[in-house]
Amino acid sequence: MPSPPAPMPTGIAPVYSAKPIAKGVRLLQMVLPQGAVGGPLIITTIEVDPRAAKGVRVEAALGGDLVWGTDPTLGRENVSALTFRTGAVAAINASFFPFAGNPIGLHVQHGELVTEPASGRALFAVMKSGSTRFDALTYEGSVRGTDDISFPLDGLNRAPGKPEKNGAAKNELLLYTPIFFRATLPAKDRFETALRVSPALPLAAGRDITGTVTRTGEGGGLPLEMGAIVLSGSGTGADFLRRTAGTVGAKVTVRLEMRTPSGRSFDLSGVREAVTGGPQLITDGKILAVAGTEGFDNSFSTTLHPRSAVGTTPDGKILLVTVDGRQKGVSRGISLPELAQRMQQMGCTHALNLDGGGSTASSVGGLIVNSPSGSVERPVASMLVVYAPPLDSRSDPFPGQRTLDASSARTVHVGETLPLFSTASAPAVVVGSRDGIGYVTQADGQFHATRAGRGVVGWVIPGSKTPVRTIPITVLGAETSGEEGFTPALTLTPDPADPYRATLTLKVMNRDGALLVGERVNISVESGIGPVQTASVTTDNSGMARTVLTWNIGSLPPSRVVTISSSGNRFTAKKIRAEPLLIRP
């Protein structure tokens, strides 16, 4: 087993825990407490040994099982929701994403190519042979007509590019497969053609794919049928398709090329699962100089952030690591050089940084076992998911020692801790939480309340007949500071045709420019002696929401106070004052 990372010199010792959660799978956690040199820091690791038992494996997964979706997150999903929905043993977040459902870089699941490599970005792959691979691939695609004229294929399974600054359509050609969504996205100035292909799906790289046109359409929105692909073009890409593949029965040739840094063609057929991150941290046991590499600037490397990573050891284990951060008094975050050092100390000879920040999340049995930086999970585009046979049947390991039971809710205050089990029982059970009200520490079975609100704490008893148990928790008191720094920007715009009516527009983003998407926001209008109006809106994929505020002045005081609050407690409530001449019912 990997050795615990060597702590920095300090009089306060780190606290370690190691808990089996399935055959070949353990949950490891290191807590470096507040007051220790280099603390506080929480590192949570899912250790997977595919050789331990048949069926132990790591898979890549898309949020919601498809690339795209019509929900406010555009197809993303919480890590804990996926583990609960699929019955997976555990999972962590994986690739970077553009606040939509498409991962950035190569994504392969169950041998199916979903998205193309991002040139220069490192990736982690699980091969069909069972081995693992870290690499960086380049991509080049093309579509060729029977006239032997080709056009570059810009990418796979992502949203069409935005028009140029002058309003002209972007010159682009994209390819879609059924794993994208039920149809391509509606977009003016696009021409699309559906094709039956040979060889059949999944897409192959490094050889010609012949397609026969079965359907064409203007304006996007062409259905994605099983066994078929859709080519979608705009600008000169649309012109090429109309000319080359604009009639049913026409034939085109698609070719996807992927190459290693040395220029050699990469055979995708041997890949079972793959996700992309960056930068690469360790290769062949050596820590790499990562500052300014793979398109990331120096500050990304040196700043203390929450991080996620994947690494492998010489004996074949796969480590899925999360490091919490941006939480004063809880966990400071980590730089990439220190992350590489920590993973090397855990025995990794290869390691790759994944998406981090508010995306960093680790889940076991549908519960969150780390402390996400925004408290509430961020929906993500892709994940690394662990499946394994359950441990041999076990009885309840702590009869009579439970301090909480599933029939009774509990109320605590921000800053308080709640013992879920006695310390003697804690090694036998995995504890976790949901809904962003706090986090748990595995060694002592303690729940730490960090944010006011209602949520759930629970525990997983590996091998038992009822492995996951939960109870409701209410946390009272003010929120803690130092999470992701989400702040709503508010604007009241009078209706030019009605001086007693106004539109409230809000946009929620944090100090790093990340948008808060799909958040239900409560709006309350008060007159000074009581509420006048309430409303609830949900932020869209640009972090924005709008509602019309109206009311009669009547005999109430003229001024109004509009309060904006987050249903998920993602930001501190914000108030603005409005004069009655701006709004009415």
Set out the fold topology:
Layout lengths: L14 E8 L2 E8 L8 E8 L8 E6 L16 H8 L3 E4 L13 E3 L2 E4 L6 E6 L4 E5 L1 E8 L4 E3 L2 E2 L15 E5 L13 E9 L9 E11 L9 E7 L1 H10 L5 E9 L11 E6 L3 E4 L2 E2 L10 H5 L4 E6 L5 E6 L12 H10 L4 E4 L8 E3 L2 E2 L13 E6 L22 E4 L3 E3 L10 E5 L3 E4 L4 E4 L3 E8 L7 E9 L10 E9 L2 E12 L10 E7 L4 E8 L5 E7 L9 E7 L7 E5 L7
Parallel strand pairs: 12-13, 27-33
Antiparallel strand pairs: 1-2, 2-3, 3-22, 4-26, 5-24, 5-26, 6-7, 8-9, 8-18, 10-11, 10-17, 13-16, 14-15, 14-16, 15-17, 19-20, 19-23, 21-22, 21-23, 24-25, 28-31, 29-32, 30-31, 32-33, 34-35, 35-38, 36-37, 36-39, 39-40
Account of the 3D structure:
With 585 residues, the chain is mainly β. β2 (25-32) and β3 form a beta hairpin. It has 4 domains: 15-103 and 274-387, no CATH class; 138-259; 410-476, Immunoglobulin-like; 487-582, Macroglobulin (MG2) domain (Immunoglobulin-like). The longest helix has 10 residues, at 236-245. It has 4 helices and 40 strands. It has an 8-stranded antiparallel beta sheet with strand order 1-2-3-22-21-23-19-20, with helices on one face.
